[in-house]
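The following block was generated as part of the benchmark described in Methods. Ligand: pyridoxal-5'-phosphate.
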Amino acid sequence: MSTVSRRDLLAGSAGVAAATLATGSCAAPSSRPARPAASAADGPADWEALRRQFRLEPGWANLALFYLASQPKRVRDAVDFLGAQVDANPLVVPTGMRLPDGPTGWPRVRRALASYIGGRAEDIAMTASTSIGLGVFYNGVRTRPGQEFLLTGYDHRAQRTAAELAAGKHGARVRPCSWFADPATATAEGIAAAVGDAIRPHTRIVGITWVQSSTGLRMPVRAVAAAVRRANEGRAPADRCLLVVDAVHGLAAVDEDAARLGADAVIAGTHKWLFGPRGTGFVWVSPEVLDQLHPTFVSFITGGGAAPLSPGGFLAFEHAFALPVAVEMHRQLGRTRVAARIAELSTRAKRGLIRIPGVTVHTPMAPELSAGITCFSMAGRTHEQIVGHAATRRVRLSASVHTRLGTAVINTPAEVDTAVGSVADLAR
Ligand SMILES: Cc1ncc(COP(=O)(O)O)c(C=O)c1O
């Protein structure tokens, strides 16, 4: 058995002033609507204490944690604690694994997530990543030949590929769309109107990304959902247009209940902004459209609802079953405070970057149309040059369509300034 003590594991040092530790902290029973994630933690958070939970290489400013995240001590300890149980007696998996505060397993994991996203545990399927969740969804939707899926080039290839593979199987097609001319000047009304205009009677899925990793733009999911709802008026269930959201960069970065945005399905990995164990993720499906989805894999999670959509097999249980520890850490931090900190850091980055001659910021300045990813480019420089130059200043950035600066809750204003300084340097 691991030597990690119960106290260490539960308390960690999440860095929350006056955090009260809920032992046996399972959320409300799954038949009741879950309480939204705590947003009401009072007082300032101790972000430095939270940062100390991470083993990030000292001396480097890592502003690419949205791409591949580091894990906090609390989560690492929980994974070790559970892994020791499996190694001592692998049959503990079916008979019952425990976190220090009580039993853990799929029911607890689903309840914890439900409480965080403001939904019900039975509407959640478990996956190992966003990509797998997107495959589960697109493969699973009952689709007739001739129907179509709408996506943009800004959505991640995990979603575009899932859509193309499924469309190929069903005799459907993916129609590339555009919701805005320029992400920096996009508006919620304009995006929602473009989605509404694009939907045809044979449109089966509109796939969007809550926070686009290619532009940093946060899609106005509620407004888009309203446009999809209007298009669905009078449609039979098999003709209904479903709205699916790749939520991986909105979850634990935006102060919203993901299950209450008005989408039909919300899909996310939980190993990025939530700092969950690697190899964890989920698909939330609105109960209203569950009968429109087929499972793709055998599921080892018992029960009805969305459980049969969970790809099964004996998985990395020590990772999956430690997820409630990450959710509890965020509950203690308070989702409002986390989102505010992320917005504060990304606003600082945007304000610094737009002052640099030759730099174009592609992410909207408005906090309600952005979150923790800031995308930019520099005239006369490639993204590789910008990322490479930043590395000489011990700053980690990443690039896709544009150069990207991600502000996780554990980054600091000083790190943002160092990163912006490295860009200013290159511009001189
Ligand atoms: C928008 C978006 N969706 C999906 C993915 C893939 O996520 P996962 O590794 O959880 O499959 C990424 C990867 O960073 C992403 O940026």
